[in-house]
Sequence to fold (439 residues):
Amino acid sequence: MATPAPRLQAFRASVLHFVDDPALAGAAAVVVHEDGLLVLTDGRVSALGDASALLPGLPPAAELTDYRGRLLMPGFIDCHAHYPQTDVIASAGEQLLSWLERYVFPCEARFADATVAQETAGFFCDELLRNGTTSAQCFATVHPQAVEALFGAAEARGMRMTTGLVLMDRNAPPALCVDAELAHAQGEALIARWHGRGRARYAVTPRFAATSPPRQLALAGRQFAAHPGVHLQSHLAENRGEVAWVAELFPGARSYLDVFDRFGLLGERATYAHCIHIDDADRRRLAATGSAIAFCPTSNLFLGSGLFDIDAARTQGVRVGLATDVGAGTSFSMLRTMSEAYKVGQLGGFALSPWSAFYHATLGAARALRIEDSVGSFAPGCEGDFVVLDPRSTPLLARRIACASDLEERLFALMTLGDDRAVEATWVMGECRYRREAD
Fold:
C-alpha cells in the first residue's frame, strides 16, 4: 500500500513568536514577519518566514489560508486553572479560605457524578479554545471520573492537557477527603491509563499543604519521582491567612515552600500557583530545583490575596507562566489576564512590557511547564497550535490600533483592550477547533 502524501498547510498573516525571554534577550528574543507564512506538515511546523520568500516554493497541493490583516501567534498556554470551578466564577464576598468553604468545596462535591464532570469538562475546553488557549495545566477534583472527563474532553478536541487527581485528606468536607493510600492507588491507575496518551500528561496534585497530612505529601513525592515525565502542581503562599495556617500545621518548616521541599515535591515539571508571600530564599530554591511559578493576576486581585512580584522572580531565575486560575480568576481570556498582570506590575513598581506579557502566555508558559519542545513557539517540529487575533475586532480596539506607531504599541493595545472577541480562530495541530462567527 502506498504511503499517503503528507498534508501540507500554509497560513499567511502577520506572524509573531518568541525564541527567548525578551526581558533577558531584548529584541533578539522576538521574531516578527509582517507578511509571513507559517507552514505545517502533518500538523507540525515545517517552515516559517516571509511570504514573499516561501510562497514561490509552495507545492500546488498545499492548503493555503489567508489571514492577512490579522496577527498569528502560538496558541496561548494556561499554566493553572480549575475546570470544576467554572460554575463558581464571579462568586463574590470572600477571601481565599472562606471562599473555598462557601463556594468551591460544595461545587466540587458535585463531580462525584460523571455526567456533571463530562458536561463541565466539555464546556471548559470549548471556552479555552474560544479564547485562543490550546494547552493548559488544570486541577480536577478528588474523583477519578473528573480526571477522566477532562482528559477525554481535551483528547476529543486535540488539545494538550495536563491534569491529575486532587489529593486531600484533611481540613475539607468528608465527601472530599480521600485516604492517602487509596488516592495514591487511584493516581497510579490514572497515570497508567492517560500519561503520555496522545497529548495528555498527568500531574500529581496535592491541593495545598493544609489539606494533605505528611503521609499524603510523602506519597505524592514518591509518585512524582517514580514516573519520569509526570508533572506536579499545587498552590503556594497565596493568602496570608493560608501561610499562617500552614506554619501552624508544619512548625518545623522554614517556610511554606520548605514544607513541599521536605517531601520531594520540587523539581522540573513542578509548578506552584501564586507564590505571592515568599522571600528571596524561596525564590532561589525554586530556581535551583527548576520549579516554576504560575502567575494568576485576576484571581489574586479578585480574592484580595496580594501582588505577585514577577520582577523578583525573574531576577532570581525562576520560570514564570501566566495563568487564569478560573474560577477565582475572572476570565478565560489570556488577553484579559495579561492586562491584569500589567496592572499588578504597575502597583508593584514594575512595568510589564507587552513583549514580556505575550512571552509569558506562550513560550514562557511552555518553559514553565517544560513543554517548550512541543508548543509555545514556531520552532521546526513544534505542534501546529496557533491563535489568529483580529486587531480590529471591536470599534474601540480598531480606533486605538489605527493610532499605534509600531507593533509594540499595537500589542499593548491588544492586551489592554482585547478579549475573546479578538480571537478570530484557534487551530490545534493544524485543525481549526474554533472559528468566530461572522457578525
User: Anything to note?
Assistant: The first strand starts at residue 8 and ends at 18. The chain is about 40% helix and 25% strand. The chain has a mean pLDDT of 97. The two ends are 47 Å apart (CA to CA).
